Amino acid sequence: MAGQQFQYDDSGNTFFYFLTSFVGLIVIPATYYLWPRDQNAEQIRLKNIRKVYGRCMWYRLRLLKPQPNIIPTVKKIVLLAGWALFLFLAYKVSKTDREYQEYNPYEVLNLDPGATVAEIKKQYRLLSLKYHPDKGGDEVMFMRIAKAYAALTDEESRKNWEEFGNPDGPQATSFGIALPAWIVDQKNSILVLLVYGLAFMVILPVVVGSWWYRSIRYSGDQILIRTTQIYTYFVYKTRNMDMKRLIMVLAGASEFDPQYNKDATSRPTDNILIPQLIREIGSINLKKNEPPLTCPYSLKARVLLLSHLARMKIPETLEEDQQFMLKKCPALLQEMVNVICQLIIMARSREEREFRAPTLASLENCMKLSQMAVQGLQQFKSPLLQLPHIEEDNLRRVSNHKKIFLSLQWGYILIKPSIYKIKTIQDLVSLKESDRHNLLHFLEDEKYEEVMAVLGSFPYVTMDIKSQVLDDEDSNNITVGSLVTVLVKLTRQTMAEVFEKEQSICAAEEQPAEDGQGDTNKNRTKGGWQQKSKGPKKTAKSKKKKPLKKKPTPVPLPQSKQQKQKQANGVVGSEAVVKEDEEEVSDKGSDSEEEETNRESQSEKDDGSDRDSDREQDEKQNKDDEAEWQELQQSIQRKERALLETKSKITHPVYSLYFPEEKQEWWWLYIADRKEQTLISMPYHVCTLKDTEEVELKFPAPGKPGNYQYTVFLRSDSYMGLDQIKPLKLEVHEAKPVPENHPQWDTAIEGDEDQEDSEGFEDSFEEEEEEEEGDD
Q1: How many angstroms from the chain centroid is the CA of residue 410?
Q2: What is the Cα–Cα distance from 685 to 673, expressed in whole angstroms?
Q3: What is the CATH number of the domain that holds 323?
Q4: 274 occurs within a structural domain
Q5: Same-domain pairing of 212 and 73
Q6: Where are the transmembrane segments (predicted)?
Q7: Do 203 and 352 fall within a single domain?
Q8: What is the DSSP track for 748-762?
Q9: Chain-wide mean pLDDT for the chain?
Q10: CB under 8 Å to 538, separation ≥6 — which residues?
Q11: Is residue 494 over pLDDT 60?
Q12: Is it the case that residue 429 has pLDDT exceeding 90?
């Protein structure tokens, strides 16, 4: 081997290749991920939903008062500069000459391949006179011309050129380094070392250290670790946390402290404005000394949150601080839910009596406070205040709605007033269209249409629950200590779809009832919810003549049963019984042959029917096994799909009149025992419910057999009054005893089996010897 040589790029051409590739690898993916999305598309989306969300605060802040954002402009400038650099480098590379190309002496001498020796000599003389150093020519070019002339005229040089590609024979393998030669030049060594030291010893450690310092202060959900510690301490200290205490603990988060969060602000005017709001609210406990709950930043956050829940008008200087605080509330409440769940798990795992778990009421109050913060309502306010154009003054008209019914009783027309108590969104939806319009008669037509559009966008979620035990032979049999898996299928619809169903039902009721159809229509549910009895029904239409019930025909009993029945009637009919017995005995002689043949045919039929029943049972068992196997495979596929798929958390925007940020519609799903007030399964935060979603809730079965009544809760983190509750019944059986001779646990060692066989063989051999001795 001729050897190896490493050389830097003197001309800088290879460095341009390297730099072009490096810049392209950065610019192309950065453009795809960092280029700002089309702002016009967002404006079009907002305009399309203006009819429903036009009065929301977040909508007005984004559309009517768009905040100037310089970040997209900076991104565009940086990306365009990167593409300009990439195109410049690509142009530079395209114009560079190829240095490493195949050596061709004909090109050096400017001759065509196959030229004669005379032509080669003639051309060599002309070029020698032109490039000879003594004549003032180029020395390097002259050496190349001489080398090419030798390769074409000298036999040895020509042979080397044909074999090794060079007239001088095999050359050393050279490796080019894509860095310019001036980097290793001795003149620039100090400058290069200074740049390396500044980049790798100052800039890089500072960047990594600052990133690490920021990352260790936050949890995975971008919540300060100090906030989690504060929540853990106060939740552990206050086992049963009411709403006032919960608001106080929520406001103690370090996210609102300017010392730990630069986005939080503290103004000198707060010392004047905050006491004024405290006097207006009048229900703030300031006597307890519990830092940081009594710190100025915590007191300010608490006052701003209480004023938001009361829908109070605050000074303009505090509006920005209130919006910042409200944007942090959903994430902070989710962190508090996580803290409560962790403390419940710790209390179950420990056997110490001193460690008490938080109550279920504390967990549910966190979820309710999230709804209150998004909708800007206090705890016991009516959910109807979530709708536009409905104020406190209108609730009296809505909550007690009078209606007159006409009923026909015994030929007289009676006028009966009834009162509809409209307290929830479901009550309002369950009304007919005419009743709703009469109920909201104080609204103008445009406002009424807007209310109906908003109400139609509200979610309506149905739950389909199925409990089973996976990885078991009988998945439907729940035994003591088994791991129960409750599969909940959530289907999300809008109230507008419920309106359509309700209108179709009402139209069917208005039509003349045909044979038996009037009763079935009235048993249907209106608006997706079961129609409650809120007054006397229209008996003129509902009452019909009931068909007379036919008397059941007596079924003939067997002869033995007839005899017993007759004997039970008393001694009066004894003679008749005797006569009948005599007749039966006389008839037996004539019918004996027929009975034997009938018995034989019946036995054959019974054998055939037994075989058919056994075959049917086997087929049914096989079908059940296949169904269980398919369910198990489907559950495994769901788990794999959940691991592979990453669903978007953008579901549906929430209608909120006073929340400053566009909130997505999320839910909490969990199982609890309402009687014992205990949490059975940990809450699952459903963040991807767009149309349908399947969630698996797992928990260990109770330790004692019996029937248990649980409840599945689906709570919204944004809407009040739309929570769903569904019962869950579990029948827990005793665990099956472990079989003694199960083939799975037959772990006999081969050596032991051989030893047992040898001992048995020895015993039999001794018995044979004893028998032979006895014969002798």
Answers
A1: 60
A2: 19
A3: 1.10.3380.10
A4: yes
A5: no
A6: 15-35, 77-94, 190-213
A7: no
A8: --HHHHHHHHHHHHH
A9: 76
A10: 405, 406, 407
A11: yes
A12: no
pLDDT (mean) for 676-696: 94
- Domain membership of residue 420 (yes or no) is no
Q: Is 386 among the domain residues?
A: no
Amino acid type, 415: I
Alpha-carbon distance 223 to 228, whole Å? Answer: 7
Does 665 score more than 80 pLDDT?
A: yes
Q: Which residues contact 241 (CB under 8 A, 6 or more apart)?
A: 235, 249, 358, 359, 361, 362, 365
| DSSP-assigned beta bridge partners for residue 418 | 403
SS in 3 state form for 551-566? CCCCCCCCHHHHHHHH
DSSP 727-749: EEEEEEEPPPPPPTT-GGG----
Domain match, 237 and 190 both: no
Same domain, 162 and 254: no
With a cut of 70, say whether residue 532 has pLDDT above it. Answer: no
In a domain, 636, yes or no: no
Indicate the SS3 state at residue 51.
helix
- Which range among 349-358, 420-429, 461-470 shows the weakest confidence by mean pLDDT? 349-358
192/296 same-domain check: no
Q: Are residues 207 and 276 in the same domain?
A: no
Q: How far apart are CA 265 and CA 149, in angstroms?
A: 84
Whole-angstrom distance, CA of residue 229 vs CA of residue 343:
12
Question: How far does the chain reach from its first CA to its final CA, in angstroms?
Answer: 96
Task: Give start and end residues of each alpha helix (H) in 49-154.
Answer: 50-53, 57-59, 71-95, 105-108, 117-131, 139-153
pLDDT digit string, tens, across residues 62-101 = 876 655 567 788 888 999 999 999 999 898 888 765 544 5
Whichever domain contains 144, its CATH number is 1.10.287.110
Task: Report the domain count for the chain.
Answer: 4
pLDDT above 60 (res 742): no
- For residues 49 and 653, is the Cβ–Cβ distance under 8 A? yes
Q: Write out the residue range of the structural domain in which residue 142 sits.
A: 4-180
